[in-house]
Each structure stands twice: as C-alpha cells, then as structure tokens.
Amino acid sequence: MATPVNPLFIPSTIDTVVLNTTLADYSKRLTDNVYDSNVLLKSLEGQKRIIDGGGSIVEPLIELEQDAGGFYEGAATLNNTQTNTLTQVEYRWQNVYEPIVITRDEERQNSGDMHKILPLVGTKMLLSEKAIAKRMDQALSQPVGAAGNLIDLETLVNTGTLGSIAGGTDTFWQSTVTASGPFATQGLTDMTTAFYAVSGASTDENPNMIITTSAIFQKYEQTRLPLERISNGDMSANAGFRNLTFKGIPVVYGNNIRSGLLFELNTNYLSLIVDSATDFVTTEFIKPTNQTIKVAYILFRGNLITNNRRRHVKLTGIS
User: Which CATH class is domain 16-62+85-316?
Assistant: First the structure.
C-alpha cells in the first residue's frame, strides 16, 4: 500500500545540503569579517577570552591591596596571617543573533541550476554579517534598552551596579566619571587630569586606549596638527583605522559612541568574554513548519566585562 501524501506538503526546490555546504564556506570568513568591521570590535578582539560555557561568567577581583609583611631582624616573630583581599564578580552570559532567510520565491527564482544559489546565499550572508556587526557595535557602545543586551561602555565605565556588585555601595567598584565642557577650553586639561587619576605610575596601570565620537576626535585633531600626524602605525590592534595619539596611546572614534563622551580605557582590565562554541557561528538551514522559508542563524554568546573598574575613565558633556 502506498504511503499517503500530505496534501499540504510543498517539496523543496533546492537541496538543503547544498545550502548548508555553501553557508559553511562563507562561515569560515565570518568571524574575522565581523571583528574587522568596526574599531570597537577590532580593539576588543585582542582582549577576547574564550570560555567553555558555564552558567555565568565569574571573575576574581582584588578588592584591597595586601599589606601583611614588613621588616624584621634576627629571630623576630613574623606575621603568619593574611587578610582576605580577594572577592569576585559575576556576569551573565548574553546572546546575539541575526537570521539568514531564503524564501521559497527566492528558491524558485534561482532554480534550475544549483550554482545560481551560491551568489544568493553569499549576498544573504553578507547582509546578515553586516547587520550583526552593526548590532554588536551599537550594543557595546551605548545602552540600547533591549532585554538581554550586552554590557556597553557607558554602563561599564560608570559608578553604579555592574555585574553582581553595586558600585554605589562598594566604592572600589567605581570608574572615574568627570563632567567636562567645551573642548577648546578644557578638553585637553580634563583628558590629562583623568589620565593621571587612574594611572598607577608613569610606566604602570595607564590607560592605553581612548575612544570617542567623530566630532570630538576632530576637535582633538585640531589641537594636535601639525604637531602630530594621523597614523595607523601606532595602533596595531586597530590596523586600518585612523588614529591620533595622546601621551603615546591611540585615540580613535567609534560610530556609535554617544555625543559628548570620551573614554580612556585600560584594556589590560577589559575583556570580551566569548563562549567557545558561539563565536559568530552559523547554524544549519532549517525549514519552519508554518512558513515557506529556510532560515539559518548567526549566533554570538558572551559579554563585555572588567575586573578592575577603577582603571577606566569617562568624560561627559564635551562640546
């Protein structure tokens, strides 16, 4: 007896195996393309740390400096107790996605020759790649108000709650936030004062990256020229992006930094945590039961964190 045919069944016109194979070929370049797409993600790529899953991201912190030793002579009794100076902060994993959708109409338009699907998948992949790169840059630069959003620079470089620690209660968990004003009259002074406020010594614990808006970058540029030239040679972590320097460290501008803000960051204490199995990976194409489409997803799982919030600076209200 013949197997009954579902009258609602619509046969696929393009082999899903071909779609997934094509997607896999493009996926090999996806991660590099996303990280290279804008200055903030490119900067954070050097601070990327891979973690193999887990329920949350737990980071050890040094809350206080240790001061248990001293000086002694001969047979003097030495202190053998040690105050606990360590604590920890817990961050949540967050997820980002972008769909790659091929409709049945698009399948039919590219039917008859399997090679015709390759440019279609490539174009779809490029559109989704650009979309998730833009979404990441926006989410890491400023609060976007979405549930499950990544930690952004404005939230990280601040004085309120971050992760599982309330900065308002634990003052060691506060960044330096300074209200500035007209760049022409106080911009350089505020940048300098903030730089030294979070620096440990002339060669230790200094901010090593400054990111701001295009407008403020141009104002800073006018104060430097012709003393300094625009270069990308001083910023190996951001090769391809124009930058100036301030005390020998790169100054760059981001596309989604909000108006009036400038960040002085110590990237030694800044990490982009990434799940080992979800670093801009692509799923296979699947067909939903209630739609005539095939869909795959680009997925990212991670978060932006710090383990020493005091070493970062934010200037606000720059005009």
Answer: alpha beta
